[in-house]
């Protein structure tokens, strides 16, 4: 009871906002404005800046094409986290594209999930993609699989699927942890073409080392817009890039200030 | 309405989360806690769906006597056996906990240990000098290996300082923080695209508006 009495009651900033969120609100508003400007330009047919080519995303169609030629399936793994993670949401956009391409070329697609919520969503995405491609008959609900909610049980199950089904292409986009290396290396042993993408910096080196193509950080968030080839969605990526440039400028200024400060690590390097 | 209904739910939920996180009144009302509660209910329902999916797939394997169908029988027996045990004993029951601690944890650790070998084979492939990038990777790896091992300091007394403090603390940290910043901006953009209804991949289909 005393503890509660000792607590100071939280007060709103400007009588409205939660303390410590003003910077977030500014970023959200700025990004919203940038996206709105770029989307408006795209909608009215005015030119918007080009976005760079992303080799990992260009390779998705190539990987599906290879699987089609070999008559073997494609596997898609949307990470191991649930739908509350932005990386999983980004994976849905890629899954939609992969499912459409697989439906178009009549290639079997195996979607392997570790969490029941993405499983339910991905089943719907895959079904709808096959429907939109005019191939509802080719969709097999058993090919969208919930394997296990336990990380390493899921990893074992995925290795089992690789061994039994012998896919030709392995696409992994989303939030991964230690199992990323198990998937990528096993896929490499089996001669699959592997495309891995995550925003987890602790798993990126594994994907870079073991996959044929790696999508680094923000690239997975731009993936669905990039793959859709829709000018409006391209506009959102351009807005995001402009905000990133602003962030770089702030970092550069901060970096210069920190570097010239003699108390930093850089200053200590010259103390022989 | 098939797409509009879920779209409305998505936008309303996003607005509630924004209101609850940024606005003082929203936080006082505890709206995020309420949403979390609903999320947990949805998760429970989806888990049951996953359970049904596993049962259907493996039951088919058993019926068709597909290669390795015996493993499917084992999976179904273990899955339903553990479920029944969990219902009878609850998750704190002695047998339930013993199976988890002495089987699940050990098996998980066994799979995790595979990483030691997989990292070695992946590193071998990545470090083979074929390109300019692979050469840079190899040089950096040798530099850090020597900084982390005592032999580095034996060669040059400042090696561990340059390797661990400057290389890892400045160059490496700057690199991954750059990636993280880009990723956070990207995540913001995905959230806004969904909030504005521009991206609809989670509703099925093309994912475009």
Briefly characterize the structure.
Chain A is of the alpha/beta class and 272 residues long. Chain A is built from eleven helices and six strands. The model of chain B has no long low-confidence stretch (mean pLDDT 87).
Q: Could you please describe the fold and organization of this structure?
A:
The complex is a heterodimer of chains A (about 270) and B (about 210). Chain A has a domain at about 70-170 and about 190-225: Rossmann fold. Chain A contains eleven helices and six strands. Chain A has helices at about 1-5, 20-45, 55-70, 85-105, 115-130, 150-165, 180-190, 205-210, 220-230, 230-260, 265-270; strands at about 75-80, 110-115, 145, 170-175, 195-200, 215. Chain A has a six-stranded parallel sheet with strand order 3-2-1-4-5-6, with helices on both faces. In chain A, helix 4 links the parallel strand 1 and strand 2. The longest helix of chain A has 30 residues, at about 230-260. Chain B is mainly α and about 210 residues long. The longest helix of chain B is centred in the last third of the chain and has 37 residues, at about 160-195. The interface between A and B is large, with 94 and 73 residues.
